[in-house]
């Protein structure tokens, strides 16, 4: 009985790899893997709000919010990796690196890519995309007394996919990016100590250039 069980188990184990290989081939044939890597230019005019949460010392006093408005050009790179759920829709994970002046944020987002219009087979495609997630501060280095925290990141876009003969495609997209970040600064000495907090909501027009593999 024990020998029979071992023989059956060995037979099942020998069958599983070939079955899994066939299943994976069938899955990837039905749902092809896709990678879209893009470089972005981020244009915007930011209004930063500074406010002090509290002040402790011998002479406590409140601080009024202050504002600063500037034009900005920032850089970003991102890669979307996923699978085609059907010939027109791909779903996956988008990972990026965004530079906002001295701040580096790394957004992780759920992403979707959808063919909106294609007049002929093999021709250019009108492509819609949406990425939504949360940014981390993993790549950011803060000065002494400063603490940076990422936040919600949303990036809808629309553009064109231009197929090439080798199966890849050039990508150009125009969109909007919203990114929240929180900044904390701590200062003090033997006589006083205070903490200031700043909330920045980066709102940028985005132009993305890249390639799909």
TrEMBL record:
Protein keywords: Signal
Residues annotated as signal peptide: 1-20
Name used for this protein in its record: Outer membrane protein beta-barrel domain-containing protein
Organism: Emticicia oligotrophica (strain DSM 17448 / CIP 109782 / MTCC 6937 / GPTSA100-15)
């Amino acid at each position: 009985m024990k020998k029979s069980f071992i023989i059956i188990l060995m037979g099942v184990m020998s069958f599983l790899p070939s079955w899994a290989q066939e299943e994976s081939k069938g899955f990837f044939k039905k749902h092809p893997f896709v990678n879209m890597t893009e470089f972005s230019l981020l244009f915007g005019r930011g209004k930063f709000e500074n406010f002090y949460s509290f002040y402790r010392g011998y002479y406590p006093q409140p601080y009024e919010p202050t504002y600063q408005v500037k034009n900005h050009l920032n850089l970003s790179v991102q890669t979307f990796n996923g699978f085609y759920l059907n010939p027109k829709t791909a779903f996956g994970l988008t990972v990026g690196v965004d530079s906002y002046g001295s701040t580096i944020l790394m957004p992780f987002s759920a992403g979707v890519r959808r063919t909106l219009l294609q007049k002929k087979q093999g021709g250019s495609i009108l492509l819609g995309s949406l990425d939504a997630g949360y940014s981390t501060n993993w790549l950011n280095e803060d000065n002494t007394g400063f603490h940076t925290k990422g936040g919600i990141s949303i990036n809808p876009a629309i553009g064109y996919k231009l197929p090439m003969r080798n199966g890849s495609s050039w990508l150009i997209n125009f969109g909007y990016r919203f990114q929240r970040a929180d900044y904390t600064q701590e200062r003090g000495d033997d006589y006083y100590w205070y903490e200031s907090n700043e909330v920045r909501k980066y709102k940028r027009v985005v132009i993305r250039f890249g390639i799909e593999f």
